[in-house]
């Protein structure tokens, strides 16, 4: 299954390492950019450093009816995605 991966870490965190092809939208910007996220190809996998911030984003967008999941920490998710290929 193809996912759109949205990394909700800060720009600085994202710049220091990320999942290839992921989109960086810092958590503090997800509400103001919610229309953009709602229009993305689903399902959406949110990730961050440990799963806390991505969990907040997931709850917010699930309440809006978006097909999304909390992918947890980006390093762990990157490993899982690598194994799936």
Which features characterize this protein?
85 residues; alpha/beta; Oxidized Rhodanese, domain 1; 4 helices; 4 strands; globular
SSE arrangement:
Layout: E1 4-7, H1 11-15, E2 23-24, H2 34-38, E3 44-48, H3 52-63, E4 68-73, H4 74-84
Parallel strand pairs: 1-2, 1-3, 3-4
Explain how this protein is built.
This protein is of the alpha/beta class. The protein has one domain (4-84): 3-Layer(aba) Sandwich (Oxidized Rhodanese, domain 1). It is built from four helices and four strands. Strands 2-1-3-4 form a four-stranded parallel β-sheet. Strand 1 (4-7), helix 1 and strand 2 form a beta-alpha-beta unit. The mean pLDDT is 95.
CATH homology group: Rhodanese-like domain
Q: Total domains, how many?
A: 1
Number of strands: 4
What name is given to the CATH topology? Answer: Oxidized Rhodanese, domain 1
Radius of gyration: 12 Å
What does the largest sheet look like? 4 strands, parallel
Amount of helix: 25-40%
Give the mean pLDDT: 95
Helix and strand content put the structural class at: alpha/beta
So how many helices?
A: 4
Strand content: 15-25%
Identify low-pLDDT runs. none
Return the string of H and E elements. Answer: EHEHEHEH
Q: Please list the strands of the largest sheet in the order they lie side by side.
A: 2-1-3-4
CATH architecture: 3-Layer(aba) Sandwich
So what's the CATH class? Answer: Alpha Beta
């Amino acid at each position: 299954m193809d996912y759109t991966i949205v990394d909700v870490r800060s720009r600085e965190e994202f710049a220091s390492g990320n999942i290839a092809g992921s989109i960086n939208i810092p958590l503090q910007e997800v509400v103001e950019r919610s229309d953009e996220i709602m229009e993305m190809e689903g399902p959406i996998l949110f990730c961050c450093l440990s799963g806390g911030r991505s969990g907040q984003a997931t709850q917010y967008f699930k309440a809006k009816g978006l097909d999304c999941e909390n992918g947890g920490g980006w390093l762990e998710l990157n490993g899982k995605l690598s194994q799936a290929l």
